[in-house]
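Q: Can I see a sequence and its folded structure?
A: Here is a first one.
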Amino acid sequence: MTPADPARLRRVLAGHLTAAGVLKTPSWRSAVEAVPRELFLTSFFKDETGPDGLAHYTPVSRDAGETEWLTLVHQDETWTTQIDGHVTPDTADGPVTGFPTSSSTMPATVVGMNEALDVDDGMKVLEIGTGTGYSTGLLCHRLGEDNITTVEVDPAVARRADAALEEAGYSTWTVTGDGLLGHPRRAPYDRTVATCAVRRIPYAWVRQTRPGGIILATVGPSAWSYGTGLAKLTVQGDGGAEGRIIGRTSFMPARAETAAPLSGDLSARAAYADSSRRTSLSPDVLDEWMPAFLTQLAAPGAQWVRTIGGDQETAYLFDTGREAFAALTVDGSGWNVRQGGPVALWDAVENAVTAWREAGEPDITSIRLKVTRTAHTYWFDSRPALRWTHPHPPLGA
């Protein structure tokens, strides 16, 4: 079999992204056609659901067949490159299970975000979350390596990305550190873009982006792997930033904000409630994108989990930081909710979802947000009364 031609595969990928309406400008098309994604994905995991219902991740590399490897690399897919913070494809003997902690995001998402950055020649960009370095390479090709600073929290991931960038010909500023703090040494930046999800836009990013500059990041806490929104903000001269949610997206949470999975006897943790009542809102609603996002606004930091014990299903919402919980169970006539702690979590969710429904269920793109030195505020531009204001939490909380 004739080996696949990477240059041709990149042109095919660029054509696909153009036809999909994602790739819009010649300069970014040039980057997609020039940056060799295969250098950043020498190996990765391909996932599929196993007989146990869990995702099983199988290592893929050029050793298994160069044509298949190259073809997969240039598909518009997200490929996982690390499991549980340490397992990589080159260290796995076969399929593994676990939680993905690093990946190469699908090109459509990366390119769509790059297009949304509205860059001009010579602009300085701060990238949070280097990952494999592929997105960094696209930025370097478009703006020049000296104008790009990229921050990666995982030292091993940063080393691999830096080596791949060097091999691709980009000697950019690859920094190992906590991206939530930005990188003040090279500030101010014209653009700040994050390839991870954050609970709130860190004010450090606002400080390090010049007035008139743009911040582009996925907002939504780590309790959900979906239901997050892509926020685009413009930094103001008064030290704040304001903008809107421009679309739906999903990224892995920033490492410092990754919540530890709930474990142990959850029923025991929710044994002592302060109140118990009926609720007209089924927890099934949180399987929908928009109500899940509203829950993230109304109850930031909360984690959502459903369990089955015997023939009884229980849905839990836990906010361990505030030592609050809501536990929902169903009987023949509907759902009951028990709540404990200083915050009535389910009341907040009910109020948010009910108000959204009464407003005609506006799309996520109708949500605006403002970041100041002290707080985040979200509201619906068509219904200003639908508003949530949260003080900035302590870093890592």
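Q: Show me another, different protein.
A: A second, unrelated one:
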Amino acid sequence: MLKITTAILVAGAGLTLAPLASADPAPGVYTATIIDSGKSNKEGSVPGWTIDPCGPDCIHVGTAGASSGFDLHRDDLGWVGDSSDGTWRLEENSMVLTLTDPELVVAIALMR
């Protein structure tokens, strides 16, 4: 009995000491809600945005009503990538997607 208990304790210690892994955003459909419109003067929520894996350290964000989307690649703060609209950044913990171009910054919360 002592050997089993010791094995469980050792296994449990290994689990608690292991570093936390960053998880990719869950694939699926999201609602995008503008939380800071910048100079765009846009507001509201748009359902139908999607996140799908597109390879190692890559996610594809598709926007509602668009025939294509954009790819984001993992960096230290989450995910980043460029599109014809500007540079997109998805913060991993908050699921806030930010679009930055030379003239505006727009922040969008993605929620399931």
